[in-house]
Design brief:
alpha+beta; Aspartate Aminotransferase, domain 1; 4 helices; 6 strands
């Protein structure tokens, strides 16, 4: 994943610009303009419904993330799109279901006014939880 915290980009939402890294996810989201804020809140709810109850929200690389025995996924708003960062292996595993979305090695881009389908987000998060649990057992 690109270290977005250090990268200076004019494409990040106002929450991630200028005034440093937000202290928490709520602060990050307060700085995101509509309709991206609503979109990220829907993605956040889908993630929350799929993570273990002990999972926590955090800011990692300057953007919101969910953590449980390691960072599971990240999500963020940019000026022209929103992104979900479930890691490269998850994107590869869901390649067919992600047709129609712009993807890169570890990122899925989607419109600021149209969240990823909640069912798809949940399946990707569940895969990340299983990946981290599998690494722990080794």
């Amino acid at each position: 994943m690109v270290c977005m915290k250090r990268r200076q980009s004019g494409n990040r939402s106002s929450a991630a610009k200028g005034n440093g890294v937000p202290k928490n996810v709520a602060e990050y989201l307060r700085g995101v303009p509509q309709p991206a804020r609503n979109t990220l809140n829907k993605v956040r709810a889908a993630i929350r419904s799929a993570v273990p109850s002990e999972a926590t929200e955090t800011i990692s690389y300057g953007i919101p993330a969910f953590k449980h025995k390691g960072v599971l996924v990240w999500f963020a708003a940019f000026s022209n799109h929103c992104s979900f960062f479930p890691t490269a292996s998850v994107i590869e595993a869901f390649r067919n279901e992600l047709k129609g979305f712009s993807t890169s090695k570890g990122t899925i881009h989607f419109p600021t006014d149209k969240p990823l389908p909640a069912v798809l987000v949940k399946k990707m998060v569940q895969m990340r939880v299983a990946q981290i649990a599998s690494k722990e057992r080794r």
